[in-house]
Amino acid sequence: MIKLKIRIRTKEPDETGRTDNSLGLMFWAAVSFLAVLIFCAIFADVLPFKNPNQTFKGFNKNGPSGSFLLGNDGVGRDILSRVIYGAQTSLVIAVVGTCIALIIGGSIGLAAGYYRGKVDRLLTVMLNTTLIIPPLILFISLILFLDPEAERRMFILIFTFALLSIAPIGRVVRANTMAWSEREFV
N or C end of the chain, less CB within 10 A? Predict the structure, then answer.
């Protein structure tokens, strides 16, 4: 039989009674990677990245190298430039969709929380109805059936993302409006 000794490192509390709850190295590595990716996505047109759709003959499915940091795909396109330009598209969809959802959901939530009564019931039913839509199925069906053009697909994704984000934002704003409207200073 093998006997294992397991030693658990515990940090002693300091004079305030707290232990060290600092964030680890992997957390900061992940945050740094995301910050670099977002920076590169924002400034992709200025930075010297290859065209994401350009094919390089003779470089099919090559691993990372000096000229292709993440390698090539099966067609010979640079994976790093495709990741950067894909992140740029994702950031545009997320930021624009969130702004639209904040404006519409915030307005609906403010109206529902401030006016209450029939207006609150009607707007709350509308918000709750949009919560029953399965997001992934809606995204896939809209992309497949509406328009094959890539530029219009982005607008469809922005609209769908905003539509699905309106209800959670509206509910949070409604709850906060109801809580703050009962304060003395309002």
Answer: N
Among 59-63, 137-141, 162-166, the range scoring the smallest mean pLDDT is 59-63
- In the chain the first and final C-alpha atoms are separated, in Å, by 72
Would you say residue 166 has pLDDT above 90? yes
Q: How far apart are the C-alpha atoms of 158 and 132, rounded to whole Å?
A: 19
Mean per-residue pLDDT, 63-80: 83
Helices marked H in 131-183: 135-145, 150-181
3-state class (DSSP) for residue 77: strand
In this prediction, residue 138 carries a pLDDT of 87
Under 8 Å between Cβ of 86 and 150: no
89 is written with which tokens? Answer: 């598209």
Identify which of 73-77, 84-88, 95-99 has the greatest average pLDDT: 95-99
Q: How far is CA 74 from CA 57, 65, 66, 67, 68, in A?
A: 11, 15, 18, 17, 14
Q: At what angle do helices 135-145 and 150-181 cross, to 10 degrees?
A: 150
Contact 74, 62 (CB under 8 A): no
> How many angstroms separate the CA atoms of 84 and 90, rounded?
10
Number of other CB atoms surrounding residue 78 within 10 Å? 24
